[in-house]
Amino acid sequence: MSTTSTPSTTASPSSSLLGDAFRQPRAVWAIAFAATVSFMGIGLVDPILPAISTELDASPTQAMLLFTSYLFITAIAMLFTSWASSRLGVKRTLLTGLALVVVFAALCAASGSVGEIIGLRAGWGLGNALFISTALAAIVGASAGPSAGAIILYEAALGLGMAVGPLLGGLLGSVSWRAPFAGTAVLMAVGFLAITALLRAEPRPARVSPLASIRALAHPALRTLALTAVFYNFGFFTLLAYSPFPLEAAAAAQGTEFGAMGIGGVFFGWGLALAITSVLVAPVLTRRFGLLPTLVATLGLLTLVLLALALLHTSMVGMIVGIVIGGLLLGVLNTVLTETVMEATDLPRGVASSAYSGVRFLGGAVAPAVAGPLAAAAGAAAPYELAALAIVISIVMLLVGRRHLAAVGGDHGAAPHLDARSEAEAITAGDEA
């Protein structure tokens, strides 16, 4: 960033914006704290999957179903969150979501079998969908001054949660596989109490039909992007949910005891990479190259990373490098895909985001259920090879439906970019899981 030599007593716009971000009412900080914990839940379970598999006498396939049940219910719930918020109001929707997470995370910590945890993670997914879908609106509504400052704070909470989740999961998981679940329940309970005390109830938004998001999928552009995202998310959650098992095996083959802490450290790097590129790099690429060219190029690179993981799955160093590079690419893709959804249709953004997220998470729900049996039947490299094929199919889906995406304008020059609030909505919908 260039500076001038002329002294000035006027603060720069960027410094003023950062000041606005941190000069917020306590209600905003309470929501930001809860949002950080909620996003931590994405990677929190990852480091303890092998431990759950060992201590509860479960197969890797059964352990990975913790992602499947969570994501499947999240997907269904996302189709109706805009309707729920219009019925309950923002504060009640937030508190309902938080309460569900507290209850089901605590029950997971007390579970005695992997089957119980799989079922309870479904309730956790419902709560997280309700909370995340309304958290941004709540932060903006409770903020003091320009909304852009509150959005920066929200993005910071999002990035911090994505990065810290696996690390906290590893730290607590080194004590017991139950500890990450109990820790999440306690932290979310603190967030629930803070929001109850500090956030004022606002007028309910305009009523939304319960079928609005499902009907939105009839729009050709939204349908094209949703189908693209189904296959993309298959690759995303193959990398996230399956990788702890070959990573630990590769470390063991080299005489290293990796454990929950080691896996947590690797996925801390993954989450940090994802957070940085989703917030800082994706906007730069879309302004420079356009949305669609950025999508196609990054999907192509992700295909190569997955194929590299298939080849290097017995190498601990190769696995670590591949996972972190995958995080860099996933951060770009999450944001750019959802931003494309918001620019490609004239549908209300909340409805379009709910419809898109609901469909895309179905691909994420299927991936962990397929990866385990496939690895057992065809070898440890096979899930990565299938994930790479899924990414290729997502590129094909995008190119075949390109004619429906004319409104995006990414073929010639940079696409028009979203304002700050809409960009935060894109990041949120892209990163929630």
Automatic annotation (TrEMBL):
Entry keyword annotation includes Ribosomal protein: no
InterPro entries, sorted: MFS, MFS_dom, MFS_trans_sf, Tet-R_TetA/multi-R_MdtG-like, YfmO-like
Entry GO terms, CC: plasma membrane
Superkingdom, taxonomy of origin: Bacteria
Domain Major facilitator superfamily (MFS) profile span(s) in chain numbering: 27-405
Keyword list, A-Z: Membrane, Transmembrane, Transmembrane helix
MF terms in GO: transmembrane transporter activity
Pfam family, one: MFS_1
Transmembrane segments: 27-49, 61-81, 93-112, 124-144, 151-173, 179-199, 220-242, 262-282, 289-311, 317-337, 358-376, 382-400
Keyword Repeat: no
Matching SUPFAM superfamilies: MFS general substrate transporter
Topological type in the membrane: Multi-pass membrane protein
UniProt subcellular location: Cell membrane
PANTHER family assigned to the protein according to its UniProt record, in alphabetical order: MULTIDRUG EFFLUX PROTEIN YFMO (PTHR43683)
Protein name: MFS transporter
Lineage: Bacteria, Bacillati, Actinomycetota, Actinomycetes, Micrococcales
